[in-house]
Design brief:
The complex is a heterodimer of chains A (about 750) and B (about 170). Chain A has about 750 residues and is an alpha+beta fold. The chains are: A alpha+beta (about 750), B alpha+beta (about 170).
Chain lengths: ~750, ~170
């Protein structure tokens, strides 16, 4: 097992002699994406013309399919097959693991007559063309016996229980501390169910190379579970599924797993002996893939007149599917954010017949900061304190729950620098004081926090006779910049120009990495790449010093330097390509591996930030416009200033969406979601976003990994919506605690205030 | 039905199901997969192409309605080796992340600037005034193209650079 101290040694990323680490270089795959030549899963050209599959979703939320009629569909022009649970190929029961170390069990499609949620794929048609498949899918007739569904979250809060294996966390005596506090706040917020709405709907293309080997292109954030799950479902060896996901049109957690498009494409391709591709429609995405569940959050804060918190509690009620176990841990971040001697946090889970809840960008923080960071704003007002100052007064010296030292914590610096850059001193503490034409203008702020993780990963590095370095890893790039940061790490580690590096990812036959999620991607995949790169340096140094034909011959391998495509020991040198061409014409390939340090848990590891926002509120219409927004973040060493900034600004805009736009109401009659497309599901568009920027502070977190980097993909989302909501209050004096803050809700408050 | 279109300058003759959308004709028949299917309902803009120079949602248009038309897709604007100035600007400003809305954004931006040059007003244009290419104008005119990665500030910066000849 490794220790954090193993990471203290110098390495090429830390040394950064070539200056590539931190540089905002253009995206590696950018030229392909801007020319439309990066093939996403549905666009890969298979070895022979594909057939087209279309799924049909259930029209009830819970019950049984009592009768099916596929005759008309089967007789429809061009139809190659039509399946329901009655005639779909046999598959192992859900969760079967024929291989004990599979990271995912079988995920059968059309497995039984049971309907577990509205929109669940219950029938499937394949035809020679997409048009024929769509037409035939409308001819399938299904009869149901509905069993009555339970989807009304807010009416079922009394049925909520502890999430499996969890307990509330209490430090000190919350009730006594709260009762004894001079200033108290006790408010409840609600957040709605949200959909990921990745631009690329989930899609898969599969074909078979012989009876026992399946090639499948899909759009998924994690390669290995997708490969293993498909192999278990198909009943073939895990290595007999070649799963590829080279380009992914957005994930945000919603593609952390595969769906029935993959299973059905593979099964149909096997049955028909030809490639089959299947895509979710946009409408099917809403029910057929996971969502961020709604929450109710009760926040209680007790403080002294000096603003120091004496008691803090955050309790979250949320929901998941009857058969699921996912919990939106909206209270977790509160355990590390502010000091208070008496603390109580926990979660309650209601099981419903809605589609499956799951992880969506910054799960926990994205929802949870929408309450606590507004509660802090309300408390600051009660105390007559500036909201920035209130947060600084409650800055803990160590993690307030577990007493561990912070590996790095620059929250106060984020708060202060943000305040200065944004012009926070111009904020008037009394709401409703600033007018600009028809607009009431207000400023708001909030803190951001998101945990940091490192997972096990492998990577391989090769060098060929042209001196080209190829990075290979079963990693994914969902728009996060993985291709680019791997190229930068490789180029810096081997001392070659970026143009001399190739990156191959998104392939189950490459060394495994955990994929994209939880903002652990760059740190995890990148650290494995650094290890592989250092191993390749050693192999090249050994090759050069051991080769009588090399000017470096008989030198100390430890003295070899790598710069500008040249290997050297002091003034003895040759190009990397000359060395490899002569001494190892077939090239060299080595692997590297990263594992979490066994003592990493001694530190509380987080990323931090501060959001500042200016909004305009139209008191006549209730319209809110985001005029200006700034985020200042501290998240370890930044590998690519350009792509990291994009991640952060993107996350901030997700916060704007959570505050003002997004939410999918449940239709209690059908157990369905009301908004089923991108016109109904309102999310931020270009005109919703004003001037918006993200700044990253200098930081190196040497407890995080050998590079001292952390993640940024979710940090920008954390707290951003609360800053918007606090700005709305400062603009017009109305607190809306039910998100999103839509004009109807805001108008009700404005009218109540006589505005 | 047989239709003839000029796709990216090349005359193409296709025998198509009359139900085939222009988007599916491009993607599935001409293998021009740069135009993306994000919603298939004209709500996201990922399928934006230029038909006789005008930006349209290719998913909302049947292919048979374009017999004789000149259609330009993202592949017709430039190649990885020879980027169109708008493509270069998107690359330079990191005006995309996952890349799936990007072809539509770029086609839309190219046509939007042409509309602007032709004096077409938008809701942002003061009544009776000639439009000026403010950030608000760009945002308004590009709001038919959704980017869930939310590269909106970078997209505005890229379009401004391209419009002002800096890309």
């Amino acid at each position: 097992m490794s220790s954090v101290s193993d990471w203290e040694a110098p390495n090429p990323v830390k040394d950064n002699r070539g200056g590539l680490i931190g540089k905002g270089v253009d995206r590696y795959e950018g030229p392909l994406k801007v020319t439309g030549t990066a093939p996403y899963a549905y666009e890969v050209q298979p070895p022979s013309p594909p057939a087209y599959g279309v799924m049909v979703g259930a029209a009830i939320a819970r019950g049984r399919i009592t009768a099916v009629d596929i005759a008309a569909a089967e007789a429809s022009p061009g139809v190659l097959l039509a399946w329901t649970h009655m005639n779909a190929p046999a598959q192992p029961p859900r969760g079967t693991k024929g291989h004990p170390r599979s990271t995912q069990g079988s995920k059968p499609a059309l497995e039984s007559d049971r309907v577990a949620y509205f929109g669940q794929p219950v029938a499937f048609v394949v035809a020679d063309t997409l048009e024929n498949a769509v037409a035939a899918s409308h001819l399938i007739r299904l009869s149901y016996a509905a069993e009555g569904h339970d989807v009304a979250f807010h009416e079922r809060l009394d049925a909520a229980g502890q999430p499996p294996g969890e307990q509330d966390v209490e430090i000190g005596d919350f009730d006594a501390g709260f009762a004894a506090s001079e200033v108290r706040l006790d408010e409840t917020w609600t957040t709605p169910l949200q959909n990921h709405c990745q631009m690329e709907p989930c899609a898969s293309l599969a074909w078979w190379e012989g009876p026992d080997r399946c090639v499948a292109h899909t759009s998924v954030q994690m390669v290995k579970p997708a490969q293993h799950g498909l192999a278990e479902t198909l009943g073939i060896g895990r290595d007999d599924v070649h799963l590829l996901t080279r380009y992914i049109g957005g994930g945000f957690g919603g593609k952390g797993q595969t769906y029935d498009d993959l299973t059905l494409a593979a099964l149909a391709a096997r049955a028909l002996g030809r490639p089959v591709k299947v895509a979710f429609t946009r409408q099917q995405m809403m029910h057929g893939t996971i969502h961020r569940p709604a929450t109710v959050q009760r926040v209680r804060l007790g403080a002294g007149r000096d603003g120091r918190l004496n008691a803090m509690s955050m309790m979250t009620w949320t929901h998941c599917h009857r058969d699921g176990a996912f919990t939106e841990h909206a209270s977790n971040f509160a355990r590390s954010l502010y000091a208070a001697p008496n603390r109580l946090t926990g979660h309650r889970l209601v099981k419903l017949d809605l589609p499956h809840a799951g992880a969506m960008r910054a799960p926990g923080e994205a929802s949870g900061t929408l309450s606590l960071e507004c509660a802090m704003d309300e408390l600051a007002e009660q105390l007559g304190l500036d909201p920035v100052e209130l947060r600084i007064r409650n800055e803990p010296e160590v993690d307030p729950e577990n007493g561990r030292p912070f590996s790095q914590r620059q929250l106060v610096r984020c708060l202060r620098e943000g305040a200065q850059l944004f012009g926070w001193d111009r904020r008037l503490p009394t709401p409703g004081q600033v007018r600009d034409g028809r607009w009431l203008v207000g400023l708001g702020m909030a803190a951001a926090i998101r945990g940091n993780f490192l997972l096990p990963a492998k990577c391989s590095f090769s060098v060929d006779a042209d001196g080209v370095i190829t990075v290979r890893q079963g990693m994914t790039d969902i728009g996060t910049g993985t291709y680019t940061v791997l190229a930068q790490i490789a180029a810096e580690t081997l001392g070659v120009p970026l143009g001399q590096v190739k990156v191959e990812i998104g392939d189950s036959e490459l060394p495994p990495a955990p994929g994209s999620g939880g903002q652990f991607g760059a740190a995890t995949a990148g650290s494995a790449a650094l290890m592989a790169g250092m191993n390749l340096r050693r192999a090249i140094a050994d090759l050069a010093t051991g080769d009588p034909g090399s000017p470096l011959h008989a030198g100390d391998p430890g003295d070899v330097t790598f710069q500008d495509g040249v290997v050297a020991i002091e003034n003895r040198s040759e190009t990397l390509s000359d060395l490899i061409r002569r001494a190892a014409p077939e090239g060299l390939t080595v692997e590297g591996e990263i594992r979490p340090a066994q003592d990493a848990q001694k530190w509380s590891q987080q990323t931090y930030g501060a959001h500042y926002c200016e909004v305009g509120v139209d008191p006549v219409t209730g319209e809110v416009r985001v005029r200006r927004m700034l985020g200042v973040f501290a998240a370890g060493r930044i590998i690519n200033a350009k792509t990291a900034r994009s991640q952060l600004t993107g996350g901030m805009i997700w916060g704007v969406g959570s505050a003002l736009h997004e939410g999918n109401p449940v239709d209690p009659r059908y157990g369905s979601l009301v908004n089923q497309d991108l016109a109904q599901y309102v999310l931020p568009v270009q005109a919703d976003i004003g001037e918006l920027d993200a700044i990253m502070l200098d930081e190196v977190d040497d407890k995080a990994n050998p590079m001292g980097i952390k993640g940024v993909g979710e940090l920008g989302n954390s707290g951003a919506g609360a800053a918007v909501a606090n700005a709305v209050y400062n603009a017009c004096g109305v607190r809306v605690r039910d998100y999103p803050i839509t004009p109807d809700r805001l108008l009700a408050g404005l009218i109540a205030k006589g505005m | 039905m047989r239709i003839n279109i000029t796709a990216n300058g090349e005359a193409r003759s296709l025998d198509l199901d009359p139900r085939t959308t222009l988007l599916d004709a491009l993607r599935e028949h001409l293998k021009l997969t740069g135009s993306k299917k994000g919603c298939d309902h004209g709500q996201c803009g990922a399928c934006t192409v230029l038909a006789n120079g005008t930006r349209i949602n290719a998913c909302l248009s049947l292919a048979v309605m374009h017999d004789g038309d000149e259609v330009t897709t993202i592949e017709g604007l430039g190649s990885p080796e020879t980027l169109h100035p708008m493509q270069q600007a998107f690359l330079t400003h990191d005006a995309f992340q996952c890349g799936y809305c990007t072809p539509g954004q770029i086609c839309s931006a190219v046509a939007m600037l042409a509309e602007f040059e032709a004096g077409a007003p938008s809701p942002e244009t003061p009544r009776g005034a000639a439009p000026t290419l403010s950030d608000a104008e760009i945002r308004e005119r590009m709001s038919g193209n959704i980017c869930r990665c939310s590269a909106y500030p970078q997209i505005v910066a890229a379009i401004r650079d391209a419009a002002e000849g800096r890309a």
